[in-house]
Every structure is written in C-alpha cells, then in structure tokens.
Specification:
Chain lengths: ~575, ~70
C-alpha cells in the first residue's frame, strides 16, 4: 500500500510563506522594469553568482529532479554520465569559447545571433521552433505538477493548474527575466536544503555507502548484469549488453556527451539567456562555470535517492508504488521515488520544506520556458516580422502580452497533455529532431568564417530530416513500430530507447555538419569579414582576463572544473 | 539595479529555520519515528537558520558599505 502525503499546518505555512516571497520579489522588481532591455535581459546587470545559480536552476525543473532519481533507480550510478560526461564539459566549453560571441555580439537572443551570423531564414526557423517548444515544455511542466499533486495529496487538478499558472504569470509580468532569475536562485537553495536531509536519512536507513553498494549487488545480478553494475559508472560500458541503460561507451560519449549535451547547454536559449543577463563579459563567462561547481555534486542530491530507493526495495522495503496496481508486470513507478521518500522520511515541518522545493522546481521549470518564450517571440518574431521600428515601450508592453499569451497556451497544452498523452510524446519527438543537429550549425558558425547562410539553413533542415529518417528506421528491442520509431521499416535495432536516441543525435549532427560544409563551399559568402567581427572566433579579439585574480579567469576555473570532473569519473569508475 | 537578492534569501531561510527549530523543540520524540528517531526538524532548522543569518549578514554589510556617498 503506497503512502500518500499529508501536510500539517506548519507545512502549509512554509508553502505559503515561500509563495509570498516569490511574489514579493516580482513586486519589488516592478519599478526597475523601465524598458525592454530590463524586462528581457535584466538590463545586463546581474552579478555572476546569481546568474550562475539561475543557469543551473533553470534546468533543474521537476522533470529533471524526478527523472534523475527515476534513472538512478533504474540504471544506478551510470546516470551520473548525464552530469560528468554530459553537462560539465559542455558548460565549460560554453564559458570559454562560446560566451564571448553571445555576450560580445550584443545579440539579445540565440536566434538573433543566428541572424547576425547567418541570415534571416536560419533565425526564423530557429525562433519559430524554439518558441513552440518552450510553450509546450512549460505546459508539460504544468500538467506534471497538477497530476502529481492530485495523486499525492488529492488536490484538485484544475485548481493546481490555475494557481501555479497565476503565480508564475504575476511574477514574470511584474519583474520579467530578473524576477525569473531571482526566483530560480531561491528555488536552487530550496532544492539543496530540501533534499539534502533526504539523502542523509536515506543513507542512514540503508546503512551507509558500503551497505548501499552491497545491497545493489543483487539488484544488478538479478537483472543479469555483473555485480558492480549499479555502483560503477564506466566498468560496464564495453558494449550495450553489459548495462541496464543498453548503451555502449561510444554512443554515450558521442551521442550524450558531445551532441546532445553541447546542443542543449551551448545553444538552448533557456539556459544561455541567464548568462546573457550577467553584468559584464567576465561575469557572463563565469556564469556556466559557477553553475558547473554545484552541478558536479548534484548526482548526490538527485541520483543517489533513486539508488537508495531501489536498494531498500531489494531488501524488502516496498514503498515504491507500481505503475499499475492491477498489473504488476508493468513494474515499479520510478517517477515516484522522490515524492515517496519525502513521504516516508520527512516529519511535519521538514516535509513542508521538501514539498515546497518540489513544487518550486515545477514552477521554475515553467517560468524559465516562459521567459525564454516571451523574449524570442517579441524580439525574433514580433519585432522582426510583424511590427519593426516601434518604440521600446511598445516592445515592453508586447513582452508582457506575450507572457500572458505564453502562459495561456501553456495551460492549453497542459490540458492537451492530460487528454492526449500521445500528442505530447509526438511533439517531443519532433523537437528532438529539430534540436539534435543544432550544435553543428553553431560550431561551424563560430569557428569557420566560410560557413554561409544557405549552408546553415539547409544543413539544419537536412539534419532534422536525417534525425526523422533515422528514427523511422530504428527501433529499440521490445518496442513496436510507431511513435517509438521503426515506422519506415526496421533497419537498426538497439538494446534500449536511450541508445536509439543517442545514435539518432549522432546521425543528425553528422548530417548537418557535412551538409553545412558542402553547401557553404558551393554557395557565395553572404557576410564579409567586417560583418563577422565579434561573431566568429578567428575574427574576434580574445577577451583579456589577465588583470583578474585566478579564481575569476574562465580558462583557469574551467580547467579546474574539468580536472575535478575527471576525478569524479575515476573515483566511481 | 540595487536589489540585493541576499536580503530576501536571508529573511526567508532565517524564518524557515526558526520555524523548524521551534517546531522541533516542541514536538515529542514520537513525531520523529519517520525520520529514524532523529529530530531532523531541530537539526536542519538550525542549519537553515545559520544559512539565513549568513546571507542576512552579507546583505547588511554590503548595504552599510555602499551607503556613505559611494552611490553604488
């Protein structure tokens, strides 16, 4: 019988106080919102520690927290590859090599950078797909929040949607990006302070790290893997048959580590926007590095609880619910790991903190998407195609209207997701096709001055098509053709959906990379060297950092972060 | 922009810390059966209180440093 959560008076008090602070910050920032630069870019005035924590937190939506714990339970410590192979190197690359172009070019958004570097159609394609993607993600966040609250404490689904959408709406309309960033920092500390005791109590319950390792041995051997599979991150990656993820080392390093992670962390405006709000070039470059330091340690907070839960389950503590109570063959509902552990260990009081942290992460996931949406839809769609040359005040007003619109569409998407889960899966699939090749375009754009607008645009389209075709020809074992792939026939078979996904990214990236080069060489350059100054590596003066202390130099800190990450990989090899 | 985020951070976590600490002191041992017998409200409440107080101290120090004529 799964426990559900019940909140005491003090827990409600904590939840309410938190939202008072969230709204209060929005209110206090209202008087600073004088123009569109303040609203969309925070007037480029935020200190690095704040943008850094917001950079990290914007990605720390509930899907991330809940999903990583679920993966920790399903795959064990291998999940840390998402951090120690995926995120960290990409964040260091962004800081050292890419931030100078984003921040230095004075582009106001990632699509706008594409316009400056390539041409209008490349920007248009990126802006449209990004805008649609953000409102759908925000809707999915909203739906997931309301659904979880409904099953967990029996709150009304419609009320959950209405209240959380309204809170996010109010603080963004008042305080714009600054409001979202400040609240993300608040949420960061809530998550850290709310989940750390969970790890402490879980570890105490299971008997410490060595007892956890011992208890995870039967979990691995019962599934037919080597004893250490759940506690050793690299030892079982020789082939995709040796581990529960069903991924080999090459697919992991190239697919996740290179294509997907660099694509997300270096080109997704949702995170890059946080760094662009920093108060100086040096602060913008330090933003991803400041984020990387806690990010390295996040597996302790988000993956370890999953490993603890599955170890406890193995030794007879069955607090994880089934996906379908009537049909045990469908397995455990791993997504309930964090909520169930909150319910299991936290007494009234601390439960309020943990529960608020969980709710906050859903809402900041939504707010991050909404702030990225209102900027792109105002600057890159409205100002570019609908009404150019208006006053700054006009665009500020439009930005606020876009915020309302974005949230209204999100609410619509939430209900769509509740009604037709397949539509959402399909949309996410299509976004996957569009995103996978993107990093090739940026890499060539920033480091090869010969890359042309036509090359970039057709390369992107080609990469997207490549992803779709590959998906149509590939299928994971045990899956049936359709939304999971294989709708064009079954040419490639993978041991897991994740493996299929990583390889799709590799194919999309390579297609885009090759096509962009070939088409660029076949077409005339559409930008002169002078126009590309500040946008391409070889035509941009290096930012100087010599007069800053060592801990403020991006390259020095970047190298230290990478060395520490390498150390973590070796310790948990 | 003169809005120092450390101020609301400090206020909020000091408040949460104080609430949990007091609640932990007032609750009897049976309330902490779930948390394996540890009075986690008291312990973690104090941690949050210290964190909140630190943030407040930084914010107030920065404020008094900026005040005399520096305009920043």
């Amino acid at each position: 019988m799964p426990q559900t959560l019940s909140l005491a008076g003090i827990d409600y008090a904590i939840l309410i106080i938190y939202f008072v602070f969230v709204l209060g910050i929005g209110w206090a920032l209202k008087r600073y919102m004088k123009g569109s630069t303040e609203f969309f870019l925070s007037g480029r005035s935020i200190p690095a520690w704040v943008t850094g924590l917001a950079f990290l937190s914007a990605n720390l939506g509930a899907q991330e927290v809940i999903g990583m714990a679920a993966s920790g339970a399903k795959y064990g410590i291998m999940t840390s590859h998402f951090y120690w192979v995926g995120a960290i190197p990409a964040m260091v690359f962004l800081a050292i090599f890419m931030m100078p172009f984003y921040y230095g070019s004075k582009a106001r958004s990632v699509p706008e950078y594409l316009k400056l570097r390539f041409d209008e159609k490349t920007r248009g394609f990126n802006a449209m797909s990004f805008a649609v993607m953000t409102v759908f993600s925000s809707g999915i966040s909203l739906h997931a929040l309301a659904q979880l609250m409904e099953t967990l404490i029996g709150w009304n689904y419609n009320w959950c949607i209405a209240v959380s959408a309204t809170i996010v709406l109010i603080y963004i309309v008042f305080g714009g990006l600054t409001s979202a960033i400040y609240n993300e920092v608040l949420q960061f500390f809530m998550i850290v302070l709310g989940f750390a005791p969970l790890v402490f109590l879980g570890l105490k319950d299971v008997g410490g790290w060595s007892a956890l390792k011992a208890k995870l041995v039967p979990v691995a051997t019962n599934a037919g893997f080597a004893p250490g599979t759940f506690t050793e991150s690299w030892s079982h990656m020789g082939s995709s048959l040796e581990n529960p993820m069903g991924v080999g080392w090459f697919g992991m390093v190239a697919g996740l580590g290179f294509v997907l992670s660099f694509g997300y962390w270096c080109t997704d405006f949702l995170v890059v926007q946080r760094a662009m709000a920093a108060n100086s070039m040096s602060a913008a470059r330090r933003t991803p590095l400041i984020a990387a330091i806690p990010k390295m340690l996040f597996p302790i907070l988000v993956i370890l609880p999953g490993m603890i839960a599955i170890a406890l389950y193995q030794s007879g503590d069955h607090f994880l619910p089934l996906v379908d109570a009537a049909d045990p063959s469908k397995g455990l509902n791993y997504n309930m790991t964090i909520p169930m552990m909150l319910a299991k260990y936290f007494p009234a009081g601390l439960l309020g903190i943990g529960f608020t942290a969980l709710m906050a992460s859903f809402m900041s996931g939504m707010a991050g998407n909404v702030t990225a949406f209102n900027t792109v839809s105002t600057y890159d769609i409205y100002q570019s195609y609908i009404a150019p040359n208006k006053t700054d005040r006009h665009y500020l007003t439009v930005g606020r209207i876009m915020t309302v619109l974005g949230i209204a569409v999100s609410v619509g998407c939430a209900y769509l997701a509740a009604q037709f889960n397949n539509i959402m899966d399909m949309l996410q699939l299509v976004f996957g096709f569009v995103n996978a090749p993107l990093f090739a375009t940026f890499l060539l754009g920033m480091f090869w001055r010969r890359a042309t607008g036509h090359g970039a645009f057709w390369g992107l389209l080609g990469g997207t098509a490549g992803a779709a075709v590959f998906h149509g020809l590939a299928l994971a074992q045990g899956a049936s053709p359709g939304i999971k792939g294989g709708w064009l026939g079954r040419e490639f078979t993978f041991h897991s959906e994740m493996g299929q996904n990583f390889w799709m990214a590799i194919v999309a990236w390579t297609t885009c990379f090759v096509l962009t080069i070939v088409i660029s060489l076949a077409t005339k350059r559409n930008k002169t060297d002078a126009e590309l100054a500040g946008l391409v590596y070889s035509l941009t003066p290096r930012p100087k950092a010599e007069d800053e202390p060592w801990y403020k130099r991006p390259v020095t800190v970047g190298v230290l972060v990478l060395a520490a990450t390498l150390g973590l990989n070796i310790i948990f090899w | 922009m003169t809005f120092d985020l450390r101020l609301p951070l400090g206020l909020m976590f000091s408040l949460f810390g104080a609430m949990l600490t007091i609640y932990g002191l007032m609750s009897d041992a049976a309330a902490f059966k779930k948390s394996l017998g540890v009075n986690i409200d008291l312990g973690w409440g104090l941690v949050m209180l210290v964190f909140g107080a630190l943030m407040l101290t930084f914010a107030l120090r920065a404020r008094s440093r900026n005040k005399p004529g520096s305009g920043g």
